[in-house]
Amino acid sequence: MVTLKILVVGANGQIGKHLVKQIQDSGKHIARAMIRKQEQANYFSELGAETVIVDLEDEVAAITKAADGVDAVVFTAGSGPKTGKDKTLMVDLDGAVKTMEATKAAGVNRFVMVSSFDTSREAIQRASSSFAPYVVAKHYADEWLRSTNLDYTIVHPGLLTNDPGTGKVHAATKVERGEIPREDVASVIFGCLEDDTTIGKDFQTVTGETEMKQALQKL
């Protein structure tokens, strides 16, 4: 197995923290955690991960520098439910697109996007007025990624919980709505990074009965 250095954008989020820990615990790959504040660094330093301080509202050049020398980029950042439409636009859409452009500028090909469960036009029409801007931002970020020449995977997780991960998921282009622990979402991301057959795949995932690696192989 070739050792990968993986830039995790949104590392201080709950999924990001699980992912960095899994990468470091693997003993064969290295995480670089992109965080917004120095005070967030201790968690990652204790894991032995690299840290880089960049705000997603910074210019593309700053993100490009963060991606220098890595083998893959994971975008798992999000504005969060308590922010306004402006932050949704600046982080979930503009931040995502800038990260893609930075990834290309840094000469990195592999990109994993953590999206929303359903980012279709139909989902936008069904969404509440408060949730619609988030779905719109994710819709266009996903569309932008599909239009690039990056080796991408787009993961659409179900309703996120803080339950312990089970290691078993259901993954397909379309699945019934359901829950999935954030720890398992991180495992799915990590699994995608280790499985090149997931390149070009765009799938939904919830808790299921299939071991994660097998579920990814069946996509």
Automatic annotation (TrEMBL):
It comes from the Bacteria. This is SDR family oxidoreductase. SUPFAM superfamilies: NAD(P)-binding Rossmann-fold domains. Signal peptide: none annotated. It holds the Pfam family NAD_binding_10. Coiled coil: none annotated. The lineage of its organism: Bacteria, Bacillati, Bacillota, Bacilli, Bacillales. Residues 10-195 form the NAD(P)-binding domain.
